[in-house]
Amino acid sequence: MKISVRMRLLASFVVQLALMVAVVSAAVMGAARLRNNMNTFENEYVAGLRQTTVLAESASEIYGLSLQSTLARTPAEASELATARDDAEKEFTSSIAALKEVAAMTGGSLAADLTTYQRRWAEYLAVDERLAATVAGGDQQAVALGATELEQAFAPARSALDKLITDLQQGAAAAAQENRGTFGDMVRWIGIFSVVFLAFGLASAIFAYNLVGKLSDRVKEGTKSIGAAAGQILAAATEHTASASEQSAALSQTSATVDEVRVTSEQASQRAQDVAKQAQTSVQVAEDGVKVVHEIVTGMQGIRDKVEAITEDIIALSERTSQVSEITSTVNDLADQSNMLALNAAIEAAKAGEQGKGFAVVATEVKNLADQSKQATAEVQAILSEIQKGTNTAVLATEQGTKAVEEGVALTGKAGEVIRTLGDTVRDTARAAGQIAAATREQQVGMDQVSQAMRDVSQMTTQFVSGAQQSQSAAESLNDLAGNLEELTADY
After folding, report:
1. In the structure, what pLDDT confidence band is assigned to residue 163 with cuts at 50, 70 and 90?
2. Model-level pTM greater than 0.85?
């Protein structure tokens, strides 16, 4: 059983199509695996950011518990604070271990930043241990100085943690951008390869299929007479002449259209340059926004420190108020005793008769002074009670203010991240606008070349019209010769 040439060409095209599908499928699977690997790398950065959040919270909690331990009044309260600190330290240690794993996966400067933070934290713990020993000694002035030193030691640790968080954020952004760019390039090249391969295979199959058909048809038509061929040549020459004339008119219209397109291209180039300038201005605005957000974060952190200092002062005021309350209680007791002594003195003066009248007057004055002292201590007690309520309310308000400031710092940090992302987008837009401007300039040059080419084609078309007319004359002569040949062969 013989297989025709057309069927063989069709089978070859099917085989090429199957190979192309296999190659594209393998490329798509490889791209998917690459995307998964890059997503895993990006997720490591995201997990590191979450761990730094937990680390910052546990470190702040340890710092707060250290300060609270200086104010502990009872062993039960000190024990409760110690238990809470143990839990916070466990969470802190777990976060450090997780960040070490992230640093091992991502590399870069993250491991160095983590080592710096651990060193700063070790220095802070050394100060904390000295403060604990001072608290155990009971020297309040030394405790206050130790709290100040603890705050100074905590600041470098916090700065190192901020540096670690910044590096993680930059790494996550870079990984995400590289992920999108690499995967997009791979998908784009796969698509281009698929289209080119398919177009090449389809064009080859169609060309070969038509070529074989045309050769077969020409072989079948080889027996036609010279006269019919001459008539077809004459008709074709006539059509070519008419088509060349129409083409010449169409080329004139096309040249005018090309000139209009060239003017439009010049306008588009100018507009693209304007857009590029505006994009550069937007980049500067975004950078200014990032600076302002950073200043806001710094200011809110300063407010948080001041609110914490106010809280400590209010607590100290509350303690002083309690001491004054004890003193007024003592004064009240002394007033009661003075009142009793004045009463006894009055009784003795009454027993003494005339000799005790002067003493009775003195006893009465003492009693009046005792009553006044008692009344004054009652008023002082009432005032101290109001002050105590006010200080409790102020402590609660400052704690709420501290939480609000921390939330504000977190929100401004997110706002800064959004503005930085917006700045990156604006920079990309500026680059794209610059590329568009360059492309429009190149397009303008290309349109000039096209305009010149259209003028050249118009000249060639004019020459082609002249040649077509000559071909028509030659075809008429050939048709006459074919008629004469047919008349000569008719006799035989």
Report:
1. confident
2. no
